[in-house]
Amino acid sequence: MTTTESPASLLPPKSSRHVPGQPDMWVFVLFESLVFTSYFCVYLYARTQHEAAFLRSQAHLLLWLGVLDTVVLLTSSWAVARCVQHARAGRYGLARRDAWVTAGLGFVFLVLKIVEWARLIHFGHTFTSTQFFQYYFFLTAIHFVHLLIGFVVIGVLILQLKDPRRRRQETVETCATYWHTVDFFWVLIFALLYVVR
Amino acid sequence: MSTFNKRLFAVWLILVGITASYLWIDHSAGQRGVPTASTVITVGAICFALIKVRIIMREFMEVRGAPQLLCRLTDFWVVLMGVAMLGVYFAGKAVA
């Protein structure tokens, strides 16, 4: 019995390099990345044209809350990455545990986002109040929808891991790829809405 | 048998570290709590975010163990997103 597993042993061997998950999911990831990039470009352009107004509105966001959102999603991504490696090694119990951790952290993010929206609306910052908040609510809402779809995806993952007849590593990887995509979209949204000046 | 993957943990730590560094950027950029416009911070924030995206793709999404085509394609995509966002940002600054 080995005492430790090198990271390399948890990846497929080089001789059998393969696309993680279904290639169709990667087409979706690349396509969605372009769609989101176009949103980001429109936002950045608008920002440069009304810099002072955007900064004034941006000051109402809590940066630490955005950092917390990001850390929660990054941790969920770490969990689903571990889930994939456990499933590959045949440790389905641990894989299922990590899939539940992923869903739990996704739920925490969801609650944090709702609390943040409620706080902003309470202080009078709505979709129609300023151009910045129009972009803020649009980008965070479209990401929210992707996150909700992510719960369905993680649900499929948990069901697959539960039933030995249904277990397929390709499906596990496909589900994880989707979740990571939701994570990295948020990484970009966070930088653009909360950090850029 | 150890099931703890140190590499994934290190990747997570780096990603969280970069994210936390935004708090310091924000602290040093504001003047009396009011944020001020800064091209350096904007470009830095976008570049750091793209670095994080690449790390997520390579390590969490296991692109580093994927065929070269996917490795190159995802790298190209990150560059494409960066060029598009920074290009539009600087074009906007030029016409503002």
Summarize the structure.
The complex is a heterodimer of chains A (197) and B (96). With 197 residues, chain A is mostly helical. Chain A is 77% helix and 0% strand.
Q: What level of helicity do the residues of chain B show?
A: over 70%
Sheet of most strands of chain B: none
Q: Mean pLDDT score of chain A, rounded?
A: 91
User: Rough shape of chain A?
Assistant: elongated
Kindly estimate the percentage of residues of chain B that lie in beta strands according to DSSP. under 5%
Instruction: Report the order of strands and helices of chain B.
Output: HHH
Rounded to an integer, what's the Rg of chain B over CA atoms?
17 Å
Structural class of chain A: mainly alpha
> Quaternary arrangement of the chains shown?
heterodimer
Mind telling me the C-alpha Rg of chain A? 19 Å
Measured distance between first and last alpha carbons of chain A: 54 Å
Q: Can you tell me the CATH architecture of chain A? A: Up-down Bundle
Number of helices of chain A: 6
Low-confidence stretches of chain B: none
**Beta fraction of chain A:** under 5%
The biggest beta sheet of chain A is recorded as: none
Mean pLDDT of chain B: 89
Most extensive interface between two protein chains, with residue counts: A-B, 66 and 60 residues
Highest CATH level, the class of chain A: Mainly Alpha
Domain count of chain B, please report it. 1
Describe the structure.
The complex is a heterodimer of chains A (197) and B (96). Chain A has 197 residues and is mostly helical. Chain A has one domain: Cytochrome c oxidase, subunit III, four-helix bundle (Four Helix Bundle (Hemerythrin (Met), subunit A)). Chain A is built from 6 helices and no strands. In chain A, helix 1 (23-49) runs parallel beside helix 6 (169-195). The longest helix of chain A has 32 residues, at 131-162. The model of chain A is unreliable at 1-9 (pLDDT under 50). Chain B is an all-alpha fold. Chain B has one domain. Chain B is 77% helix and 0% strand. Chain B is built from 3 helices and no strands. In chain B, helix 2 (39-60) runs antiparallel to helix 3 (68-95). The termini of chain B are far apart. The relative contact order of chain B is 0.10. At the A-B interface, helix 1, helix 2, helix 3 and helix 6 of A face helix 1, helix 2 and helix 3 of B.
